[in-house]
Amino acid sequence: MTTTTNDNEKRLKWHKAYETGIERIDFEHKVFLELINSFCYAINNQLAAKDLSRLISEIEKYAEFHFISEENFMRRINYPDYNKHQKDHFELLEYLNLYKHKAEDFGQYARFLHQWFVNHTIHEDIKIKTFIQENNIDVDQYYYNLNISK
């Protein structure tokens, strides 16, 4: 089982291009990104395969939580591409579930997650931001900003 690759030494840093302008979604994306980075760190530090598998499960569970959260918001604002977006989420969850049962190359898994996160965030999630701006939607009206101390 391969557990190290040079590609995983790079931390994916939060970038303005990932911002949707929706505080809660951006916060959840930052957590998701940090989980992916933690997985890469674990690979580079050669954690045991069983520990890496646990991290995969954590990523899978967090992704499921985040997708439910994001999809609920999209439904509330009547987002027109909801079905396609939900399908993208489902496909990732399906991949994560399948992969955790036959992980052979954790580095490949990490590269896939990095690529998926960047592509989905800047090409799909950004469309939510555009829809909100074009339709003058008040996000606060949908109780979707975080009300936690900063």
Automatic annotation (TrEMBL):
- Keyword Metal-binding present in the record's keywords: the answer is yes
Domain Hemerythrin-like: from-to ranges: 20-125
What keywords were assigned to this record? Iron, Metal-binding, Oxygen transport, Transport
Matching entries from SUPFAM superfamilies are given as:
Hemerythrin-like
Q: Which Pfam families match?
A: Hemerythrin (PF01814)
The reply on keyword Hydrolase is: no
The superkingdom listed in its UniProt entry is: Bacteria
Gene Ontology molecular-function annotations: metal ion binding; oxygen carrier activity
Q: Which family does it belong to?
A: Belongs to the hemerythrin family.
- Protein known as: Hemerythrin
